[in-house]
Design a protein that fits this description.
By secondary structure, this protein is mainly β. The protein is built from 3 helices and 19 strands. The longest helix is centred in the N-terminal third of the chain and has 10 residues, at 38-47.
Length: 319
Amino acid sequence: STSVFTHRFGGGAWLEGDIGDRLTLHASGQFWNEGLPRYLDSLARATQVSAGEGYAYRDGAGFNHHDWNAYASWDPGKYFNFTLGRGKNFFGEGHRSLFLSDEAAAYPYLRITTSVWRVRYVNLFTMMNDVRGADGDPSRFSRKYTSMHYLSVNAHKRINLAVFEAIVWSQGDSLNPRGFDVNYLNPVIFYRPVEYNLGSPDNALLGFALSIKPGEHSLIYAQLMLDEFLMKEVRAGDGWYANKQAMQAGIVARDAFGVKGLLLRGEWNMVRPFMYTHSDTRQNYAHMGQPLAHPYGSNFQELIGQVEWSHGRWLHSIR
């Protein structure tokens, strides 16, 4: 575009400190003014959000936007960590994640991590926003909540298995207010049985992951994510809209070929149409108009190649 001065001006600050050996505090904030290139300008106008960085407020031909992060992380003992804050989370081994990635803007969360023996178990509770029609007024954002479990088990010194589940529900409206559903605070049971017990229309997703270390510096990984799954419809192959699945496969090598600091990655992602969507759009798997998993949303295939080499103070990267 020749009609817009394409630019990005911004600034920020962060502060972090430890209180004793078990408590860490962090706070950071950023502000930007941007004249976006056409492919990002059209995205910001359509979603009202600057990708991964918050609500995009119009400023002439450009946009202003800001974001902030903060957390308090506490280790009460050897096996537990409690983190309360505002920020992003990521589950998986890949460059992308089909479970939960850090592509969307920051959100309030409570994360409880339990590490015992070969098991790592994460409970994540969040509050997110649907910003459509709010004209940038936070009081008009439509709130949604999520509860997530991520269970990772080292079945062998070279094999890791993981299960992921998530449920998304809306706070409701003035006629049917709901807020945070305490039924989903149970830290150990699967959410699907809770849903069936409640007769709930909430959006539930289930995922599985596998990673294998064939060598000391290499990893093969895969993810399978299910939103809806009926075997008879999958076998029919007639394009039923609710065949909503996503798959990932990849391999990464660090210090590849004995070269210190060299990282090589190849990754394939495939997400079927309508994945992460829901009949009630306020309960889709998104925050601030952006997907919570892969930034492309759904209905795509992607192949990623990545080469990075770090030495001294230099980092060379191509993907």
